[in-house]
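Ticket reopened. Same input as before:
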Amino acid sequence: NAGVTQTPKFRVLKTGQSMTLLCAQDMNHEYMYWYRQDPGMGLRLIHYSVGEGTTAKGEVPDGYNVSRLKKQNFLLGLESAAPSQTSVYFCASRGIGQKVFAQYFGPGTRLLVL
Amino acid sequence: SQQGEEDPQALSIQEGENATMNCSYKTSINNLQWYRQNSGRGLVHLILIRSNEREKHSGRLRVTLDTSKKSSSLLITASRAADTASYFCATDDGNNRLAFGKGNQVVVIP
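Engineering reply: fixed in the latest deploy. New output:
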């Protein structure tokens, strides 16, 4: 199993450009998450999904949109990139159940907005 | 808002020594988790402790939880160079989301 994969690994954008980050998981997990990690800030939740076709806002959702059309995929979109969105983006997934709480993370996408 | 807050922020120890990290949080929790992040990689789940547990062990890891003080500690015994990483605590409030602390950077000197 590949676990959680993210594409692309690295991207440079100019201010105002748009892009979509793709997260895929092959563990049949119900829950999926998008975080951003900035130096000294830990991870902050952008958006998350508790199942196919559902999405919800996290701590820092402004400037981002998401879609979960298929259970295994969770897309993060930046409609008009800003330098403040320069960050490392991590996707994570989690199974469902009474004893299943750990999140599984992808390798990250480094985004630089000029 | 950041839930977990680790202390200290950076720790440098000799191989074989023990490393202790602390985490405090503000609201009630369902469980608390610790993750490790090696440089340039994603986070890896290490250990979970539920709100009704006080101590848990996994290999060289020992985690404690004091819900009255809203704090947790992670102890890594007999550290190895491969333990060099950042360590994050994360609180689960039962709403299917985690709130991460800012992380502890641990450097183990061979």
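Chain A touches chain B through 25 residues (CB under 8 Å). The CA atoms of residues 28 and 90 of chain A lie 18 Å apart. Please confirm and we'll close it.
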